[in-house]
Amino acid sequence: MSGNATGPTLDEVRLAREIIGQTLSLPTPLVHSPALSDRWDADVSLKLECVTPTSAFKVRGGVYLASQLAEDERQRGLVTSSTGNHAQSIAFGATSIGVEATIFMPANANPDKVAATRRLGGNVELVGERFDDARRLAEEFAAERGARYVEPIEPRLIAGVGTAALEVLEDQQPDTDLVLLPLGGGSGSCGWVTVRDGLRHHAEIWAAQSAQSPAAHHAWRSGRLEDRPNRSLAEGVATGSPFALALDLLRGRLNDFILVDDAQIVNAIRLLWDLQHVMAEPAGAVGVAAAEQERERLAGKRFVIVISGANATRSQLLEWLPD
């Protein structure tokens, strides 16, 4: 752990909300779920970050980062790496200001996310088997071209996605006891703890990740940046190498970090559909899987689950939601 983390301030998150609101329709809905509340003997609401233009929370960060680019960065263009949702956010943000964006994605990336990224104006390069392969090649490409490489987690992205936390903890449900959200690279969780601490709010922030791709979880537990197996079907949280900035910002601030199996995540997709008629991709349902697993600890609490994305293919849904 470097110990010199520099994340956004609450004031920057507030600025990001003003800027993002000029492009996106905010706030996203916070929906109370009677069925999940009854199931877990709690007061449960869902923060539907899956209803943005890219069907994922990350678009907030892409729009804010693009708005803050210096003129030379705009001229040089953007390069990044992603399994899909970050890709769409950077493509969306770059296109909104007329900047070229090249996104490196794994060769087996979700085809709907690839098509959407291209539709949003991104130049997509399909390379490697895993996100970490795409990340390495994207960094090399950016260095060769002199382009602005966008890390999957950096302060302006955190400020952008943190606006969702501001909506809940300040406006929609200020008496929230606890928030559960998925964690892959960690920008979302960093945004939530930044806002929680800036507001001096009492809510606990819990993150959740697949046990089949536990790199960030292990880094948070141990304080060490070490690669871990990366085999989760939930590509939105499938990262084999943790990020130093997330580790610095989350250790000592994130209240808990839950691991769930992929089978539990698939079951959570079904629960969301059956009990609330909300469709989520695997990463978007990780918080529900964690709540199901930790239901005894959550009983009696008023909590929010962030549904971070809904970018699943039809074939995936047929597999996960059989007749």
Description:
The protein is 46% helix and 15% strand. By secondary structure, it is α/β, with parallel strands linked by helices. Strands 1-2-10-7-8-9 form a six-stranded mixed beta sheet, sandwiched between helices. A four-stranded parallel beta sheet has the order 5-4-3-6, sandwiched between helices. The mean pLDDT is 95.
Indicate the mean pLDDT. Answer: 95
**Overall strand count:** 10
Q: Rg to the nearest angstrom?
A: 18 Å
Give the terminus-to-terminus CA distance.
48 Å
Q: Could you give the order of the helices and strands?
A: HEHEHHEHEHEHEHHEHEHHEHHHEH
Poorly predicted residue ranges = none
What fraction strand?
5-15%
Q: Strand order across the biggest sheet?
A: 1-2-10-7-8-9
Task: State the helical fraction.
Answer: 40-55%
Principal-axis shape: globular
Number of continuous helical runs: 16
Name its key features.
four-stranded parallel beta sheet, globular, 10 strands, 16 helices, alpha/beta, 323 residues
Topology:
Elements: H1 10-20, E1 30-32, H2 34-40, E2 43-48, H3 59-67, H4 71-76, E3 78-81, H5 85-96, E4 101-105, H6 111-119, E5 123-126, H7 131-145, E6 148-150, H8 155-161, H9 163-172, E7 178-182, H10 187-199, E8 204-210, H11 215-222, H12 244-250, E9 256-260, H13 262-276, H14 286-293, H15 295-298, E10 302-307, H16 314-320
Parallel strand pairs: 2-10, 3-4, 3-6, 4-5, 7-8, 7-10, 8-9
Antiparallel strand pairs: 1-2
Helix pairs in contact: 1-3, 1-8, 3-5, 3-8, 5-6, 8-10, 9-10, 13-14
